[in-house]
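Hi Y.,

Following your request, here is the sequence exactly as I used it, all 402 residues.
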Amino acid sequence: MVGYQEFLSLSQSPDSEERGSAAHLSALAYLNHHGPADEHAALYAALIGFLDDPSVKVRAALAYGLLHSSDAPRPIMLALMHDSPVIARAVLQYSPVLIDADLMGLVTSTPDTAILLAISQRAKLSPRLAAALIGRQEFQLTLRLLRRHEIALGDRLLGELCEALGDDPQGRGALLARKDLPASGRLHLIHKITAALRECRVVRGSLSSERLGRLLRDSTDTAVAAIGEREAIRTSPEFVSDLVGNERLNTRVLLHAVVTGHVMFFADCVAELSQSPRSKVFALLESGSRASLGALLARCGLANGVRDLLTRIVMLARSTDLADDAGARHYVVTVLTEELIAEHEGAIPEELEEAFAYLSEQNILLARKAARGVMAAFAEDTPRQIALPGSRVEPQLALTAA
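Below is the corresponding structure, written out as tokens. Let me know if you'd prefer a different format.
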């Protein structure tokens, strides 16, 4: 316990260390006070007095005592918020007393990046305050806020950031890590990543141009289908509407959606193209006859050959697990490829060239995926030795010595 006279002696001491101790003690006493009202008022007056102390140490000790309390006096915390930088940063970062109205003026006017950084590290940030901080266009500050996934930034702001940071690898990574990133923004970043990989010297030096193009096309198609599947699960049709409106939905994307098992995305695409109810499209894809499927796809404006091909792949997909089984995918693609070659006697019609090229690419990729681990698994289950054929090398004729 510290008596009043001892406290008064400390607070009037010429030693800043002793005055700092008095400031800290008075802060703790004020926050934990349960006595008479006049005593509480006296403690409050003492706190006010320490605000005018010439020593930063004393004012810092006062701030430290009040810093984390929601019961700290607002006038005192507002004064400390404009104190020396080391005190101001601590108050701005930790004090729960401050509200958005107290901080917004600083966010929009201060030239001190350290002050903005302190505010960005507060335990709780409202979307409005976070948007104001991002509006300062400080790259590292924006990255820090993007990595705080608990702060809802809104689709509009995130879409703008995708446009602004799409060419920066760190910015793309921070944006793609957010679960609330809108689908259109995610697709935009996927295209940016594809372009960056295409121009990367290490990647270009490792793969031939043709193979790199195939891999990037396949990866982009898979990303589009995966994003579309997630949006379909959320019953959000805007993504597919944007694809159709921007003419990014083609035969290759439709085929890839079915081949990779993203059937809900495929259903949304068909519903958007045919302008049919989503429930009706799901029913026809699940159990409709070949004729009814053909009629549905005809409403999508697809060519006859493409309609027939999509009808076949839907019928095959009903009995196989295309989402997780690479072997099943390889089987379906192989069957479709062989049927096309046989029906058209090797002369694939022009309307099916894009689809046939896609199936041929997938045949190679899926064959590799399906073959991985097969021999290892076979060797584990089959301990017997493989009988290798004998050598058929003819004995060489020995020449006599000269």
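Residues 248-372 form one domain.

Thanks again,
Q.
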